[in-house]
Amino acid sequence: MSISPPFEEVSAPVPGGSEATRTPAGVPTVVHKLSILIPVYNEIRTLDKLLAKVMEAPLPCKRELVIVDDCSRDGSREYLQRFASEHPDVVQLVLHKKNGGKGQAIRTAIKHMTGDWAIIQDADLEYDPAEIQHLLTPVLEGVADAVFGSRFLQGRYRRAMYFWHTQANHFLTMMSNILNDLNLTDMETCYKLIRADILKNLVIRSKGFDLEPELTAKLARWGARLYEVPISYRGRTYAEGKKISAIDAIHAVSAMVRYRFFDNNFSRHEGFLILQAVRKAKRFNRWLFSTFEKYVGDEVLEAGCGIGNLTELVLAKKRLVCVDHEKFYVDRLQQAYGHLGNFRVLQADLTQISDFEKAAQGRKFDSIFCINVAEHIEDDRLVFRNFHRYLRDGGYAIILVPHDPKLYSAVDRVLGHYRRYTRRELREKLEAEGFVVEKCFGFNRVGGFGWWFSGKVLRRKTLSAGQMRGFELAMPLVKILERIPFFTHNSVIAVARKK
Q: What CA–CA distance (Å, rounded) separates 170 from 265?
């Protein structure tokens, strides 16, 4: 994440980042290093005590202090330089040449952190670093991707002050909950503990205090497992240096609406953005599944599960094994469903027999479905051959791929598609690997027109959540138009049986 010239940094080279700890849901997590991100602006009165508390805080892991001085003029910068020189193994200090705000400081800190988890720590004494260990509890139990410290759940203590400030916090939290479908008690809390790989992949735009609603909205859109734990709170007065004001509440409301509805590029992972957009189309996914549901047996392999848009529709099967090439997607499904006894998910290359052996564990499947995957693989016939090998006699392979080479557009290129298929091509490739193709049919005419218009006319390179919401709302009409041959289908589905 680059910083604009006014926020030029002065710092030592940054060590290579470490990958976030990934574990099954409910299985204890080992946190190797916690990055404590500390934005500082004119906090000389509290810095020494705050940093001492951070250094002494009981943690079950290594700690790293990533401190960003946001162009302080009260001696904070000089103090921090001395402090960093005294603790070179623990502290990374970054200096802004121009004041940019809390959000800008955190964006800078994210660039430099090397831990597998990160927490934001304000440089005042309102939050007690000794309680960071409490936020780690859901993490260590393997159930959370992000943990908020709530000032309004019952903590050890809370200073009583500023009634209207508290009411504003409640209002902003309620509005955030409505927009993001959450039930938080304290959206505006500083203490936000987040998995580092998620935090680094979020596209953060805030420069000021609107960071809090932005992080909340984007974690919700990410689908992060979000928990709260109670924390103590010692609020400070404006005389003591409190900086937030009424205008910041207005900015927060604006940010909530902007980041919920108008900022679709919330992640740096383009494929994930598209899958998240498709995930919103629940009725479309059910309609798609209904076209081949009767061929899906009790022991199922989902080849190329993505983030699980169809996985949730087959969770009740006797045996469900999901595989995907991307570890990122595998982790998400493991976190979501890894606690279920009939479910397994693993990273796999569909061209490798050894990966199929791991998935099958000596038991073939009675059905395999593979949705929008074969077009990503250069040697798709090898994949179909492996499907045939790991199906039981009489079992079904259900293959959905993009239809019509004439529709190939920039969206296909972004998604890494080698090709779009004709029905004849798909049928011939499956038959060449020993399958009997019982059905091969087009699917989703409206989607075909939309793909052509978006890619060929508007020259867009991605699908947005807004497009999918519009498509979802139009589902009754979409199903009617499916029967009218006004345009080519967007997909082709083959149902192929092993002899």
A: 28
> 18 and 102 in one domain?
yes
What tens-digit pLDDT sequence spans the chain (499 residues)? 233 334 444 433 333 333 344 444 455 678 999 999 999 999 999 999 999 999 999 999 999 999 999 999 999 999 999 999 999 999 999 999 999 999 999 999 999 999 999 999 999 888 999 999 999 999 999 889 999 999 988 766 556 656 766 787 788 999 999 999 999 999 999 999 999 999 999 999 988 878 999 999 999 988 889 999 999 988 655 455 555 656 767 878 888 888 888 887 787 776 677 777 777 778 999 999 999 999 999 999 999 998 899 999 999 999 999 999 988 889 889 988 988 999 999 999 999 999 999 999 999 999 999 999 999 999 999 999 999 999 999 999 999 999 999 999 988 887 889 999 999 999 999 999 999 999 999 999 999 999 999 888 888 877 666 677 778 888 999 999 999 999 999 999 999 999 9
Query: Given 241, 267, 293, which residue is the final one in a domain?
Result: 267
- Whether residues 39 and 129 fall in one domain: yes
Q: Are residues 75 and 217 in the same domain?
A: yes
Asked if residues 79 and 123 have their Cβ atoms less than 8 Å apart, the reply is no
* Residue found by looking up tokens 């499916």 in the block: 482
Do 250 and 283 belong to one domain? Answer: no
Domain CATH number, residue 402: 3.40.50.150
> Where among 247, 267, 287 does a domain terminate?
267
* Total domains in the fold of the chain: 2
CATH of the domain at 162: 3.90.550.10
The model's pTM is 0.74
Give CA–CA dist 291/285, Å, rounded. Answer: 10
